[in-house]
Amino acid sequence: MAQQYFKFDDYTAPMPDRDGYTEATATTSTASSGRTMRGNMINTPMFSVEAYNMKWSNIAATDVAAIKQRIKGKRQVQFHHFNTDTASWETGPFYVANINTGFYSLEEGKEMCSELSFQITSIDPS
Length: 126
Prior knowledge:
With about 130 residues, the protein is mostly beta strands. The chain has one domain. It has one helix at about 60-70, and strands at about 5-10, 10, 20-25, 25-30, 35, 40, 45-50, 50-60, 75-85, 90-105, 110-120. The strands form 3 sheets. Strands 2-1-9-10-11-8-3 form a 7-stranded antiparallel sheet, covered by helices on one side. The chain has a two-stranded antiparallel ribbon with strand order 4-7. The protein is elongated. The chain starts with 6 loop residues before the first strand and ends with a strand. The model has no long low-confidence stretch (mean pLDDT about 95).
């Protein structure tokens, strides 16, 4: 099987940093969940939402622009990613928040960003 890559809608992104793809899944529980007076946890999970922290260092400004055009301020983006729950690549609807971009070279024709990072969160719970 051929190597797969991260995609934001129709754009194939460069590979993120070695530590640039981390999962941050959150589980929401019912309001009645909590600890008893003895400290035992009584937990009733309702759903989990998968989210990933993405980061690229030393990335071309043209790649940053291409990614941001597809994710910034969008209601949703089709994100092709590796899902650790199924150990497979899949595509699904996500939204993006907290975009950070740093610059280190603004030399014309050689514009580079020191970093592009953001959190991308699933729209549909699992």
